[in-house]
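Fold these two proteins, one after the other.
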Amino acid sequence: MNTATKLSGFALGLAAVFGAAYGIGQVGGPVAPAAEARHDGADAGHRAANGEQGGAADHRPGGLLVSDRGYTLEPLTAPAGQFAFRITGPDGRPVTRYDVAHDKLMHLIVARRDLSGFRHVHPELAADGTWRVTSPLAGPGVWRAFADFTPTGGEPLTLGVDVTVPGALEARPLPAPAASATVDGYTVTLAGAPQPGRTAELTLTVSRNGVPVTDLQPYLGAYGHLVALRQGDLAYLHVHPDGAPGDGRTPAGPGVTFFAEVPSAGTYRLFLDFRHGDAVHTAEFTVLAGAPSAAADASPPSEPAPAATSSPTAGAGHGAPGHGHE
């Protein structure tokens, strides 16, 4: 999908905006209580089975820090319509070597602070360590930019920084929780609910015109890619898919299963990217973690909650500023 967005007046204020954003992200620090990072023995077994490291610090939600474990996200000035940044390492120098994760060296996710805008794009790396991409910031507001990457020789990290796009801001309330969403003629239903402090199974089922979609196309090494953001601080949660295309056991739809672990009760926004018909589509859900009825009520409502289309200029539904991926 083409995520190019021309932002009027953005270039003139870019240096000042990024400077302010860098400060905001740096001093904001972690919002989640330290206790949220602690889990029980069952979760420790799940992590061990998946080759993950133990320890509270390792399971702090991502994206709350601009600098972690010696690595720092540094926004840079860029020409109009461009977004540029770099990652500096423990030695203070730009990082130029990264490991591929989910088919890419870098995943850049941006979300407006009220969660009414979302983009998932993949910048290009220059030899000097600068990442560049067509600006994914679609409209005025404060956006949180997440850099999700694995430096060669290091551990996976997600760093975050606030970036402000000037202009008149229209606040948009978060849609009510619903187990069904529509996007680009597809209906996606959600079964399961996240549970604080333990791993929960979430299955998203894709249909079109009432017919189950059984020929999903691989996207980022799976039949779907799921991002979860916590309302308020926008804690970024890693959500792992079950299986992989070509493994001999994972069907190409209609259901795509993920395992999610949320650190606290509260409201979360889920963004599912899936590929079909040679195009990537994004379905969006509001979910409640820790609500007594959250796990029990998984039936679709009479009117599915709308989700943004794959077009960045879509005017219908939550997220009119533009949701997408690249």
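Now the second one:
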Amino acid sequence: MSGRQLIVLGTASQAPTRHRHHNSYAVRWDDQLVLFDPGEGTQRQAILAGVAIARLTAVCITHFHGDHCLGLPGVIQRRALDNRSSGDREAEPLPVLFPAEGEVYFERLRTATIFHDTSRAVPHPIPAGPDDQPARPPVVVAELGPSARLSAAPLSHRVPTLGYRIDEPDGRRLDPALLASRGLAGPDVGRLVAQGWLDTPTAGRVTLDEVSHPRPGQSLAVVMDTAPCAGAEELARGVDLLVCESTFLHRDRELAERYRHMTALQAATLASRAGARRLVLTHFSARYDDPELFAREAATAHPDVVVAHDLLTVDVPARPPAP
């Protein structure tokens, strides 16, 4: 099993259907478990998908329309319950990131019912700004660990909305042949990696760059409710996996424009323009019951399209080896 995966908990926009729960997504990224947009039913879907809410390391809300956040009270209360059951061990703080303009809704959701709050949920409001603001590139909003940097950028919806991106910092890939040519093996390799250079008796000073190749870090972006916009394109720039809303088919693009959403064709065009390697379509209107229509439409603009369904798991594509 890959250490970096998207777990689709739900795929419905606005209203659930017989076959689609409200949209909700978990991302496993090494030792991190990040939950995006917990819609209604997230607790139960997480159980079915094997996603442990107690192990969440962050929650990201794109905006405060109900289909993207009405599961948040249950997630927070479940974490509180799990924390109370864990004995003396104190849970780590759980950052909850969301558009700052909707902070009042976060507080209402957090305190929706009576419970003993040991969730250690920590609000992280991020200004999204007005809908008509100039586009700005993603900014780092959290360091989730050595391999997971979380960024956010405003999108273009009817309410303040953010998109998110996870990036692994770029690194180096050691070349066994180059190491051998300099007589490096065993603990010497570890010392070279740790300090970036090593003085050797036969090859003199060897630098890390001389025996390795650049290794671009993996990346994933989540672009939910938005019209096509520069912010969405910046979030999707060069990612290995783009999770993107495609509420409508392009035959209904007038509805997409009216409600500030995207069609499957627009999502695929965005992915192609931004150089995203794999596209996952989700957040489908209840008016459509044939997912193949989305696949066919998007395939005209992007070569690697996955049409999400509830409880689907999608690996983040591995980076190809350096030439």
